[in-house]
Specification:
Blueprint (H helix, E strand, L loop, with lengths): L1 E7 L3 H12 L6 E8 L3 H13 L3 E6 L4 H11 L4 E4 L5 E2 L3 H12 L3 E9 L13 E5 H10 L1 H5 L4 E4 L15 H13 L1 E13 L12 H20 L5 H21 L5 H11 L3 H7 L1 H12 L1 H13 L1
Parallel strand pairs: 1-2, 1-4, 2-3, 6-9
Antiparallel strand pairs: 4-8, 5-9, 6-8, 7-9
Helix pairs in contact: 1-2, 5-7, 7-8, 8-9, 9-10, 9-11, 12-13
Length: 315
């Protein structure tokens, strides 16, 4: 059985489409755990209505504790051998869990993942089910995490062996929860099976969303999550440690830009972090000529660096 955990908080406009997409899966041996994380009475009643209509639905009503808290509660109650997560403003392809489980069983992997399709309100899409698969083994996992961060990092486009979460929990009171745990899960899994089928529909710019608003805490949590990943990769003596640090330098520069653009003095914090990171000369050799040249421009004139990046992206 697959336990699907859906944390719910102020997404009533999207909730029915989300839950219906799970209940209509071609793989029907499901336990759908709706975690009402202190949301509105109307939305809580919607959850209860789903449970009345379908015996596979379990509802938990709790005080608001955030996404990590809701996921952790769901994990504690999950009875399936496999577990998945769906955000309550997203939805999934009818074949998603059948495909992910089939790929997992066929490859003996402990995590099965698919492509994410970024979608927008009122856009109707069907996704793709080409199912060209590859198995990612331990030595290549952190390279793939660097190469394809969207599909590798987020929790919701995957199916997991439940036992992977025996000693892994989502961090409380943190943004970028997925970033804090994904490297631990990949390490425990040892192998991941990937399909290029676009089966998870990730809603962008939803109505009343605050996800894109500037927040110093969000930037700091993102940086801390990445630093945690780098330290972990170093501790296990993995070959992609320096590659991870190169990515962290990019994140540091991006955080600098966002602080500067929003008149936050924290840009000075990220400038200092940047200089601390580039002191490791091994990172320069890993970065290569063009990336290193960009760092040199950033050292001399950060605004020029970002102008050059913007020009490159436009062309």
């Amino acid at each position: 059985m697959i336990s699907v955990i859906v944390p719910i908080f102020h997404t009533e406009k999207y909730l029915q489409k989300c839950v219906n997409s799970i209940l209509c899966q071609t793989y029907s041996d499901l336990e759908v755990i709706l975690v009402d994380d202190g949301t509105t009475i109307y939305e809580a009643n919607l959850c209860d209505d789903f449970a009345k209509r379908d015996a596979r639905v379990k509802v938990i009503h709790k005080l608001n504790g955030g996404l990590s808290s809701a996921r952790n509660v769901g994990l504690e109650l999950a009875r399936g051998d496999y577990v998945g997560f769906v955000d309550s403003d997203d939805y999934i392809h009818p074949l998603m869990y059948e495909t992910l489980l089939k790929n997992m069983m066929g490859s003996n992997a402990n995590i099965s993942t698919c492509e994410v399709y970024k979608t927008y309100e009122k856009e109707e899409i069907k996704g793709s089910i080409t199912n060209k698969i590859k198995v990612i083994h331990e030595k290549d996992m952190f390279y793939e995490l660097s190469r394809d961060p969207l599909n590798m990092v987020i929790m919701c486009n995957k199916l997991y062996k439940k036992e992977l979460f025996d000693n892994i929990k989502f961090p409380i009171d943190k943004y970028h929860e997925d970033e804090f745990v994904i490297h631990h899960l990949l390490y425990e899994a040892k192998s991941v099976v990937y399909t290029d089928a676009k089966l998870y529909f990730y809603l962008q710019n939803r109505e009343n969303s605050i996800g894109n608003e500037f927040s110093e805490k969000k930037l700091q949590d993102a940086w801390n999550a990445f630093d945690n990943r780098c330290q972990f990769i170093k501790e296990i003596n993995h070959q992609d440690y320096l590659r991870a640090r190169v990515d962290q330098i990019w994140l540091t520069m991006n955080n600098y830009k966002r602080c500067k653009n929003n008149n936050s003095n924290n840009y000075l914090v990220y400038r200092k972090k940047f200089f601390n990171l580039i002191r490791d000369f091994k990172i320069w050799s890993k970065a290569g000529f063009f990336v290193s040249a960009g760092w040199c421009v950033f050292i001399i004139c950060p605004s020029l660096y970002f102008c050059l990046i913007d020009y490159k992206n436009r062309n």
